[in-house]
Amino acid sequence: METPLAAVNSGLWEMVWSAGPMVKFVILILVLFSVVSWAIIGYKVVVLRKIEKESTAFHDLFWEKRQFAHVFNAAKNYKNTPLAGIFAAAYNEITGLKKASEDGEWLRRDDLERFERILKKAMDSETAKLEYAVGFLATTGNTAPFIGLFGTVWGIMTSFRDIGAKGAANLAVVAPGISEALVATAIGLVAAIPAVMGYNHIQIRIGRISTEMGNFSADIMNVLEKQAGKKG
Fold first, then answer.
1. How far apart are CA 14 and CA 7, in angstroms?
2. 93 HSE (CA, 13 A, CB side)
3. pTM of the full predicted structure?
4. In this structure, what DSSP letter does residue 2 have?
5. Coil, helix or strand for 135?
6. Sign of CA dihedral 180, 182, 183, 184
7. Residue 92 to residue 98: CA distance in whole angstroms
8. What is the mean pLDDT of the chain?
9. How many Cα atoms are found within 13 Å in the side-chain-facing hemisphere of 186?
């Protein structure tokens, strides 16, 4: 005996297969949007979890070692956290200044503004990496319902055209075509809702990581300011 859920699934598939070519095309697009959205959500959640874990460890390492050379050597083991990239940008500039220094005073107060720009650029670069592909979720959330609605409108138009050709307008004639068309709207919502929820969740976590990057950049600047104060 067929269960109610199986009957619903069977009826849904029948409506999809009975729909017109344009409605099927719209459904295919929405399914692709949904699959890609779920792939992005899954990938980002895994990556962000690694980033959060490594960021905490790297920040602790920074204050534990307190020597830039040691932290830079250890940073090779922290490939996921953006803090390592920010630190590497600052350390590379420090290395360049030390090589160019002739009197041993490699850091002056005039150099601090340049370090701020370097850290800001590194933060922007790391943030762009974090946000890569996330915009697709926003696009899916914003457009999928309208794509589904387009499929529904097209299907209803086709149904009414068939009604006019047959010259009959009773419920038995109208209902199948309209129900098939409404499947597109339903699938559009199924694609859009998880995408919106995933986008909001990921953006919140990216925001926390961005705040952590800002705090870490401030920590680096504090160390450099102390170093410049000793020299000046």
1. 10
2. 20
3. 0.83
4. -
5. helix
6. positive
7. 10
8. 84
9. 9
Question: Which residue, chain included where needed, has tokens 């949007």?
Answer: 33
What confidence tens digit (pLDDT) does each residue in 141-197 have? 999 999 999 988 888 887 777 676 666 555 555 666 677 778 889 999 999 999 999
CA atoms within 13 A on the CB side of 196: 11
Give the domain range for residue 28. Answer: 4-231
Give the H or E element holding residue 185: helix 171-231
How far apart (Å, rounded) are the C-alpha atoms in residues 221 and 228?
10
Radius of gyration from C-alpha coordinates of the chain: 28
Whether 189 and 145 have beta carbons less than 8 Å apart is answered as yes
Number of domains in the chain: 1
Residue 57 C-beta-side C-alpha neighbours within 13 Å: 13
Summarised one tens digit per residue, pLDDT across range 76-132 is 899 999 999 999 999 998 888 877 766 666 677 777 888 999 999 999 999 999 999
Place of tokens 């990556």: 47
What is residue 95's predicted lDDT score, i.e. its pLDDT? 86
